[in-house]
Q: What sequence folds into this?
């Protein structure tokens, strides 16, 4: 069957620079310009594989599409070009990545079929992120995935020829084609030398060795299908390089060989857990001591012991702990604030016999700053935005207010 001058990539997937003539310009939605060439090696989006990019003359090719009747290829350009003879360049990196992943997909699909009787129902080819294929299969064990991966790489290392040719529908019946239901008249077969026969119009390597290597990255459930993510060729090299570099950096940081890294990390994690527990315990003891000291230094105002403190960058949990610890003593009022950035936190605690409603006092103090908070008679917590001047004013207000409060009802004298 003669190859259409609109689909010359089928004839030679390595032809990445060619001469052609612009035969038609097509205005496209979004203000872009489409051009039709008399002959083209650009691949249009289809069959789970994205379009080629590159240049036609000075214009960058942003997209390549088939016309609605599939008869012509429309190259979407970023700018206008003159009509006549032009030189076109296809982006080789993108093309080669697609070829590697597309050939890897045929190979992997055949390996899943042979090893696990798992047919591929759809595939998505990506050059720069893992490609995927969806299997009609229950979950697959790690061991079975590995056996498929080993077979696929064995076929890569055998460097089998990848052929493509057209057959008629009657000729196709004699071939063990993976997806036989897709066969129409004069279909293009991509054959990995007697190993796999697939009906496909994509771009592929001409030898399996060009795939380089194939790695299954992971699997995931997609409704009733199993999605397999895999990488090959240049993308696999990049992933290997990144992983290897990361391992080397971590090995140097831990001063161990990469093979001992997992043990070293687990040991470090155990040590960290233990140290964090010790630290939490020590911090708890320190806060108790601090609370004790604060209580001892407190000032008796209107016959109740008042403990006030203003801090910077203290977690509100610490303020709360200090207040509750001070309020273990009867007839005590504790009031602590902390400024973090532009936020003032405030806690107020009042122990039995203190005669102050802590939540109410807190709201009264926050009101001038537009702050918010709440609580009950024994404890209140809240905050608002402010700066160090406003924090000092708040503490001064609190001090003055405490001087005006009536003494506790049961206070002596
Ligand atoms: Zn293909």
A:
């Amino acid at each position: 069957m003669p190859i259409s001058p609109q689909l010359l990539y089928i004839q030679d997937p390595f032809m990445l620079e060619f001469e052609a003539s612009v035969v038609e310009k097509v205005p496209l939605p979004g203000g872009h310009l489409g051009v039709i060439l008399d002959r083209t090696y650009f691949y249009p989006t289809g069959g789970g594989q994205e379009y080629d990019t590159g240049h036609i003359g000075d214009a960058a090719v942003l997209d390549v599409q088939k016309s609605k009747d599939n008869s012509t290829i429309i190259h979407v350009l970023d700018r206008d070009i003159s009509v006549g003879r032009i030189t076109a360049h296809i982006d080789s990196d993108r093309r080669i990545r697609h070829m590697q992943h597309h050939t890897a997909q045929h190979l992997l699909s055949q390996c899943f079929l042979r090893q696990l009787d798992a047919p591929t129902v759809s595939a998505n080819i990506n050059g720069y992120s893992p490609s995927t294929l969806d299997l009609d299969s229950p979950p697959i064990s790690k061991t079975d995935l590995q056996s498929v991966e080993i077979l696929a790489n064995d076929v890569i290392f055998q460097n089998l020829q990848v052929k493509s040719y057209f057959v008629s529908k009657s000729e196709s019946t004699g071939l063990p084609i993976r997806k036989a239901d897709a066969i129409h008249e004069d279909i293009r077969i991509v054959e990995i030398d007697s190993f796999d026969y697939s009906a496909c119009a994509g771009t592929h390597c001409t030898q399996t060795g060009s795939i380089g290597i194939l790695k299954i990255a992971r699997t995931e459930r997609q409704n009733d299908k199993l999605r397999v993510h895999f990488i090959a060729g240049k993308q696999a090299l990049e992933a290997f390089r990144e992983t290897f570099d990361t391992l080397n950096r971590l090995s140097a940081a831990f001063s161990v060989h990469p093979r001992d890294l997992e043990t070293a990390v687990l040991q470090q994690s155990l040590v960290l857990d233990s140290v964090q527990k010790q630290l939490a315990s020590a911090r708890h003891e320190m806060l108790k001591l601090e609370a004790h000291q604060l209580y001892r230094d407190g000032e008796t105002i209107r016959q109740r012991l008042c403990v006030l403190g203003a801090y910077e960058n203290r977690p509100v949990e610490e303020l709360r702990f200090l207040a509750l610890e001070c309020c273990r003593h009867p007839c005590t009022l504790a009031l602590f604030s902390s400024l973090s950035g532009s936020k003032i936190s405030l806690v107020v605690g009042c122990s039995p016999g203190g005669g102050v409603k802590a939540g109410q006092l807190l709201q009264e103090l926050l009101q001038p700053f537009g702050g918010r908070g709440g609580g009950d008679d024994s404890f209140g917590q809240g905050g608002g935005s402010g700066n160090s001047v406003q924090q000092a004013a708040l503490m001064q207000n609190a001090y003055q207010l405490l001087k005006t409060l009536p003494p506790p009802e049961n206070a002596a004298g």
Observations:
- The chain has a mean pLDDT of 93.
- The chain is about 35% helix and 30% strand.
- The chain has three domains: 8-90, 95-241, 288-404.
- The helical segments are 92-116, 142-157, 169-172, 233-254, 261-296, 316-326, 358-366, 388-404.
